Amino acid sequence: MTDLAASLIPDFDLTTRNTLALEARSRFGLLLDHPDQLPDLFSYATDSDLPVRILGGGSNVVLAPEFHGITALLTLRGRAVIGETADHVLIEASAGENWHDLVQWTVNRGLGGLENLALIPGTVGAAPVQNIGAYGAELSEFLHTLRAFDRSSGTTLTFSRDECGFAYRDSVFKQHPDRFVVLSVQLALRKNWTANLAFAGLSELAQAADLTPRMVMDQVIALRTSKLPDWTVTPNAGSFFQNPIVPETQAASILAEFPAAPCYPQPDGRMKLSAGWLIERSGLKGYRLGPAGISERHALVLVNHGGARQADISALADHVKATVLARFGIALHEEPIFL
């Protein structure tokens, strides 16, 4: 307990530790580089009547200016090939590893599967919480098992893929944000790799001879950099709103007015629409509200033009939701978490 107290960093500045670059401070900070710190952390916090929040790369959060508790940065490191089955190679990565670095690491070893998820900002530990997805792929397709610390029992648990409760941008870890801390993930990558080229912009690769995971990854990176602003240049949290999944009748009414509107059938009979398209069609691309705005490059991305705080991002998000609801009758929901 004494050692943990000595490790706390007072008046912890988080402005450079969130990709929106929001002005934010925490009463205390802690670098969590070993799972054994977690029991002491939560015990100390309980005894001191301090709230705790866990932060990874800060890429999917909208931070408040002040947090009167402990912000623990998950810095667990390590990644390795740990085994194989008849059909898969198994890799394990700690929660503090950078997600894109992990994708590159697998591709450099000739392992395919994660290439469609390249250049997604954030850490490995955050990836299953949100069940990250892009270009027709989702993390849940590859997850084998996951280790997480359970605050309610004080023990470390192992979850199978089914036990993670994955859904579109959802998981049991997102549903219980104050209970579980993801420590590491095991991913199963198929030995007999087949490229996933169903998404627009990738299908042209089907004609390529000797297609490799690296070729797909490079194309995904090119597509993302051509459309999305670089958060290191223009601070942002990536895609800010989930693509809404609506009844077929509601999608049909939009298609009747806009036959070319992006619309994707779902297994349950509903339809997934493009949130970015809805926002752009509502006339909001490039819109600015004080120091916060909507990217001129992609209507799904909210940006910090300088000096923005949580309230500015919240006000802009509310304006977007109200405008799209009035125009199309569709309610949008944020992807980032307000902390």
| Alpha-beta classification | alpha+beta
- How far is the first residue's CA from the last residue's CA? 26 Å
| Number of distinct beta strands | 20
Principal-axis shape? globular
Q: Indicate the proportion of strand residues.
A: 25-35%
Strand arrangement across the biggest beta sheet = 6-7-12-10-11
State the main characteristics.
339 residues; alpha+beta; five-stranded antiparallel sheet; four-stranded mixed sheet; 9 helices
Question: What do you see in this structure?
Answer:
With 339 residues, this protein is of the alpha+beta class. Helix content is 26%, strand content 27%. It contains 9 helices and 20 strands. The protein has helices at residues 2-7, 37-48, 99-108, 127-130, 172-175, 213-227, 248-257, 275-281, 310-328; strands spanning 9-13, 25-32, 52-55, 61-62, 66-74, 79-84, 88-94, 133-134, 137-138, 143-150, 155-160, 180-190, 236-239, 245-246, 263-265, 271-273, 288-289, 292-294, 301-304, 337-338. The protein has a 5-stranded antiparallel beta sheet, with no helix packed on it. A 4-stranded mixed beta sheet has the order 1-2-5-3, with helices on one face. The chain has a 4-stranded antiparallel beta sheet with strand order 13-19-18-17, covered by helices on one side. The longest helix is centred in the C-terminal third of the chain and has 19 residues, at 310-328. The chain is globular. The two termini are 26 Å apart. 40% of the residues are buried. The model has no long low-confidence stretch (mean pLDDT 95).
